[in-house]
Amino acid sequence: MLLFVGVIGFAATAQDNTAKIEFKSNVIDYGEITRGSDGVRIFKFTNTGDAPLVISNVRSSCGCTIPKKPDAPIAPGAIGEIEVKYDTKRVGPIRKTITVESNADTPTIALKIKGTVLANSGK
To answer: Which of 24, 76, 85, 98 is close enough to 111 for a disulfide, judged by CB 3.0 to 4.6 Å?
Structure first.
């Protein structure tokens, strides 16, 4: 019986390796930008866990925002990026959510972008 408990305990310990995702910031503020300006921004993150981090899906709350996830797993201690491109031809406030799904201990994380796209002056 004692041997059985020891084997179960060892198996549970062996599975403790998990990926952990820690973003430098969960919000990117574009501030006030002009119509047609560069809408690309980068969310940087670190895998603070002890297993490879796999980003399985990144999606936006709107078709006006296109996120790009890393293709390869992020090694423990390594830094990764999620690129977000907002369509700056749309004038007005920016309030969008990007949902990141991964194998991390927190499998779903919401990132936000905000700001305002201003009409070009004099046009």
So the answer is: 98
C-alpha dihedral sign at 13, 54, 72, 79: negative
For the domain bounded by 19-118, which CATH number is listed? 2.60.40.10
pTM: 0.83
Convert the pLDDT of each residue in 54-88 to its tens digit: 999 999 999 999 999 999 999 999 999 999 999 99
Spatial separation of the C-alpha atoms in residues 1 and 12, rounded to whole Å: 17
Q: Are 53 and 73 in contact (CB under 8 A)?
A: yes
- Report the pLDDT averaged over residues 117-122: 78
DSSP state string for 7-48: HHHHHHHHTT--B-EEES-SEEEEEEEETTS--EEEEEEEE-
Read off the pLDDT of each residue in 90-103 and give the average, rounded to a whole number.
Answer: 96
Per-domain residue ranges of the chain: 19-118
